[in-house]
Amino acid sequence: MKTEPYAFIDLAKLGRTDWWTTVLTLLVIAFISILSTLSVLAFTGWSVYITHFNAAAQAKGLLFSGGTFAGVLGLWIACRFILRRPFRSLISVDLTFSVRRCLFGAALFLPVNLMALAAITLYASARDGAWMLPFGHFRVPDGSQIFVATAAIVAFPFLAFAEELFFRGWLTQLLRQYVRIRFVVVAIVALAFAVYHTQYDFHMKAVLFATSFGLSALSLRDQRLELAVGAHTMLNICVAFELLCFRGTWHPQTSAPVTTCDWVILVLLKGILPFTLMYLFLQKTNGWTRLRLATNVATVRPARISAN
User: Fold this and answer.
1) First to last CA, the chain
2) How many independent structural domains does the chain possess?
3) b/e for 20-52, b at 16 or more Cβ within 10 A?
């Protein structure tokens, strides 16, 4: 049997790559999103939902359901019955998933992110000529805020996995079938990732655009998603802690006009620096996954035949 090696970005070739399989995959994700909403309403009641129904908001929710639990289930169903490829080919080149690798990514991202936050503090202090915290004054949160933050932190690993699976897994591998230049693929994914987070303004979307480049660099270099999942999870935890504990009145000098240069520096320090440090550390210590950098068709073809 003829075999052909594939890198992680090319693993879509293990299954069907026709345009209609992409359409069906998105329809499955949308259907599961609708089904999950109906299931929740069956227990909570329809009155509040109907009173506050917004067609535009519902349509937007369907369009952006890929990076949710519905997206994970939809991709699993699509891989099983439509794409005819192993679901874990969206995760790694050796078709495995490592929780330890996720934890390693989270543990490694924490110190480099703290370094980036320290760099932002130094820049803000130098800019205004006085020592300051650009995040606001520290404030002890109350019990209800701690409870909400704890619940969110518990959910972060699953949400990060869902987003990484959709953007750095399925979407990256899909675009690779039509765009041969990796940088262009990563840039399109970064744009989609920034647009997906509708709760942020343009400037924060620029930070997310840069962050997506870092997450893609980790997943493509490591040939798997777990490092990116761990880093993404820890990034969300750090943001939650910042919102929880630094919601007081901002330093008076931060009212100075913010220039375009300030936003560019923020993108460099917050969106690029942590992943650059993380990448360099892994490169220096040879911390990348040691495995076969390709999956053979023969390795997964028996599973595909049995699925027919």
Assistant:
1) 19
2) 2
3) ebbebbbebbbebbeeebeeeeeeeeeeeeeee
Single pTM value for the model: 0.87
Query: Which domain range does residue 51 map to?
Result: 8-92+294-307
Phi and psi for 92 in degrees, rounded to 5?
-155, 160
Helix, strand and coil percent figures for the chain, each rounded to 5: 75, 0, 25
- Do residues 120 and 270 lie in contact, with contact meaning Cβ atoms separated by under 8 Å? yes
State pLDDT tens for residues 37-53: 777 666 766 565 565 55
Q: For residues 307 and 151, what is the distance between their CA atoms, to the nearest angstrom? A: 38
> How does DSSP classify residue 291?
S
pLDDT in tens, 114-158: 999 999 989 988 887 777 777 777 778 888 888 988 998 999 999
Same domain assignment for residues 44 and 104: no
Are residue 219 and residue 109 in the same domain, yes or no? yes
Tokens at residue 8, please?
């992680």
Task: Say how many residues make up the chain.
Answer: 308
**Whether residue 260 is found in the same domain as residue 301:** no
**Phi-psi map region of 201: left, alpha, beta (phi>0 left; psi -120 to 50 alpha):** beta
Report the distance separating Cα 163 and Cα 196, nearest Å: 10
CA distance 13 to 19: 13
Give the amino acid at 200: Y
- Residue 31, pLDDT > 80, answer yes
